[in-house]
Structures are given as C-alpha cells and as structure tokens.
Design a protein that fits this description.
By secondary structure, the chain is α+β, with helices and mostly antiparallel strands. Helix content is about 30%, strand content about 30%.
C-alpha cells in the first residue's frame, strides 16, 4: 500500500476541484482537474477540457499513484463546470420561484382534472397524488415515484402530455 492509498477520504477531498499532476508507476504522468477520489480504491478521476467544450475523463488507479502535486486551485467557474460534467443534458437549474410556479401549475392542472393532490413535506415541495404517488421538483414525469407501477406509468403519461401542451 502506497502513501496515497493510506490517506483518508478527508485528505483526498482536499484535492477535489484542483488541477493536479499525478506521477504514476513506470514514470507515467497524468494532468487534469480532480472530479473525485474513490474512497475504496483511492483511484483519482481526472477531467481535462478539450476544444468545443468536450471533456476527457481519465481514471488513475489508486495503487498506481506515486505522487500528487497541486498545480492550481479551481475558481467558482471551474467548480461549476466540473459539477456539470455528469449532469444529464436536459437538467437545468431552476430558481426557487420557477420551481414554485411549476409545482403550482401542475397541482392546479391535476385538480382541474379531478385528480386528488396534496403538498407534503415540511416545505411542501413534494406533491402527493391520490396518496400513492409523489412528484418531487422539478415536477417532471421522471420525478414521480410510486410502488404501484400501473399508477406510476399512467400519471407519468399524464404529466408528460401536460408538459408537451405547455410548450
């Protein structure tokens, strides 16, 4: 076990969002922004930004890490870019006001169509449909959950149709 593998997850976390140069076994060198470090294997996940906003991801296995040198601290813009790498294409941040509007619009539409709906949770962010299905922010079909697959499928279809009519 090398020195890198002996570090704790708290130590590894200090490398996240920083530009590093990793010296590996057999004199291999890797450079990139640290996305994360696997706490089990001590493997480092590096991101390198190419042209056209494309990203190259490399994984340096923990047992191969000899030394890690921090080259640059990540600023807020870099942290934002790194946090968006694995976000789905369609996911976009919504303002609290936009989420509230989406929730209220969906709730009103469901009530208009005689579907019982209530707000639940301490902040009332989750909609509960007929007591058997929940819809979490941002209130799309993929945000529904229920143990009843038939109801889940039907309500997801209704919400999908509602959202398509909104556009």
């Amino acid at each position: 076990m090398n020195d890198w593998q002996r570090k704790s997850p708290v130590d590894w976390e200090t490398y996240v969002n920083k530009l590093v140069k990793v010296a590996g076994i057999e004199k291999h060198e890797y450079e990139g922004w640290v996305l994360t470090v696997d706490p089990v294997s001590a493997s480092i996940v590096l991101a390198t930004f190419l042209e056209n906003e494309k990203v190259s991801i490399s994984v340096v296995l923990g047992h191969a890490v000899q030394e890690v040198e921090v080259l640059k601290e990540g600023d807020d813009e870099m942290k934002r870019r790194l946090s968006c790498i694995f976000a789905p294409e369609e996911s976009k941040p919504y303002s609290p006001e936009e989420l509230e509007r989406r929730k209220n619009d969906l709730k009103t539409w469901l009530e208009t169509n005689h579907i019982p709906v209530t707000e639940q949770g301490e902040s009332g962010r989750t909609l509960c449909v007929a007591g058997v299905l929940t819809v979490d922010p941002p209130y799309g079909p993929e945000d529904c959950s229920s143990s009843n697959e038939i109801i889940l499928s039907r309500v997801q279809g209704l919400i999908q149709g509602y959202l398509e009519k909104q556009q």
